[in-house]
Amino acid sequence: MPIAAEQLGLVLQWLDLAGILVFALSGALAAGAKRQTLVTFLFFAVITGTGGGTVRDLLIGAPVFWVHSNVILFICFAAALIVWATPARLWRGKTLDWLDAVGLAAYATFGAAKGLAWGVAPLPAMAMGVLTACVGGIIRDLLAGEPSILMRPELYVTAAALSAALMVALTLAGLPGFIAGPLAALAGFLLRGLAIWRGWSLPAYKA
Amino acid sequence: MPIAAEQLGLVLQWLDLAGILVFALSGALAAGAKRQTLVTFLFFAVITGTGGGTVRDLLIGAPVFWVHSNVILFICFAAALIVWATPARLWRGKTLDWLDAVGLAAYATFGAAKGLAWGVAPLPAMAMGVLTACVGGIIRDLLAGEPSILMRPELYVTAAALSAALMVALTLAGLPGFIAGPLAALAGFLLRGLAIWRGWSLPAYKA
Amino acid sequence: MPIAAEQLGLVLQWLDLAGILVFALSGALAAGAKRQTLVTFLFFAVITGTGGGTVRDLLIGAPVFWVHSNVILFICFAAALIVWATPARLWRGKTLDWLDAVGLAAYATFGAAKGLAWGVAPLPAMAMGVLTACVGGIIRDLLAGEPSILMRPELYVTAAALSAALMVALTLAGLPGFIAGPLAALAGFLLRGLAIWRGWSLPAYKA
User: Fold this and answer.
1) Which of helix, strand or coil describes residue B62?
2) Within chain A, what is the greatest distance between any pair of CA atoms?
3) Alpha carbons A146 and B85: distance in angstroms, whole number
């Protein structure tokens, strides 16, 4: 029951671009927090903005999405320049967390949808959404030498899993992408938002 | 002289599943040691269980093995749930090391065999076994913020190299997979076992 | 206006081999600095020597360059054995930095050229050069538990970007590879060399 590639549609394409932009911003902000140079800003913006989607495309055997046009890298470069040129106080506090939340929900949804569109089985399609939503942030944290977001107590992977699972379930239930996509992305974003705002977390493992 | 894909046979398929299961368990245990949530357990089990084979398949140009069926992820999810639901003292001590040893030997052997089956040259086929056997544990350690197993003094990469080299040599010598596979896996497992049990190590570099 | 694969020519192939050899040496030296065993030397030499080119080939959809012949791994193994067998004082001081500089410039140039040869758009071709030149060193630093070269103050990514951008620009301007290649590699090497020698750096971000 995989959906056709063209059915990914406009809404999902916007989710994809939103994911790329906000992850690129979050990468540039991580470089900023470490007082790096403009070139490292660009490097971090590209790696974080494209990392998740790159892994997704390699796994499903699709051509890597940013290789055959200049647009995606322009977006990442623009994100880096925006962060570089604006006062740091604009980005203080939880800005990075909220950008990351948008990227997480958008990428988890789009990743699951693209997986289904390429004929991936349902469970791997869900995993595709989760993995690719998390990979950008994971690489960013690894390169910056920060503790991985994966290991922090708040809900994070869970929010990506909610978006991805919902996208797969709603699509298999027959909903078109322009309805399933926003619903799935919104659910994951709200859950991650509650985690940021109220400190929600799943129960941790007790030995 | 590459062997045909079907000759990989039943024994090697069991080695593959064994590698996936025990690496998934070791990933879940690493999440448990860090007091993570169930969702992070699942994430670590999937990444550690499938990481090595994923890199292998990307390198040899094969379709990534877990993408087109639900079975492999079910195994990883089951491993995560088993670790989550059982008392931690079951897994104390060197359990993680021994599981990792089984995964290492099984994956090194199967990785080399699959490399040969896909027409990879002998030396890269051996490297394929080693790299893919080590990648799961390396990613697990990186994500958990642990020092990489690569850098610990005991024999580790060496045991994978023994299994992989033996598998390539025995296959090129004409032995069928159902004999070469168990022999190669057993040799690597024994060597790694001696390293765990007796603290065996290769001589370190002296400046 | 992509150049044909055969036009990569002899000079670029030498740049490629130079990149592999010096990154392999730098990987082995990192293993040596951590007092590792011979097998870990080999592992680090292979990962560091082939890592950048592997990522490049996966991204552009080319067969991974070291998989179908034994030669590349022989080079990496030889690099590991050379470092293992020679007195450490030969390699003291800034040796690792200078080897890394040669590899960086060579790989950035060759990566951009191979990207163009495979029909990649200009901006991604430049990024291909940068990413693949930096990936070997990044993986080496991650595995060795060292702070990433990316985060150190000196010019590093910038030098790779200079080589890659020059290679793309000169090629699009119509220069043949045997002129554009050495020019681009030399420019990047000189810039990185000045960074090592005089401590040159770009201005860092001010909050």
Assistant:
1) coil
2) 50
3) 30
Which candidate, A181, A184, A186, places its Cα nearest to that of A8? A181
- One DSSP character per residue, B65-125 reads TTSS-SHHHHHHHHHHHHHHHS-GGGGTTTHHHHHHHHHHHHHHHHHHHHHHHTT--HHHH
User: Which of C43, C66, C74 lies at the smallest CB-CB distance from B150?
Assistant: C43
Which residue in A162, A171, A190, A136 sits closest to A16, CA to CA?
A136
A-proximal residues of C, 121-150, CB under 8 Å: 121-124, 127-128, 130-131, 134, 138, 142, 147-148, 150
Q: If you count them, how many residues does chain C have?
A: 207
d(CA A30, CA A82): 13
The verdict on a CB contact (< 8 Å) between A151 and B36 is yes
Over chain C (207 residues), the average pLDDT of each successive run of 10 is 51 80 91 85 92 93 93 95 87 78 91 94 94 87 81 83 96 92 95 90 76
User: Mind giving me the DSSP string for C10-41?
Assistant: HHHHHHHHHHHHHHHHHHHHHHHHTT-BHHHH
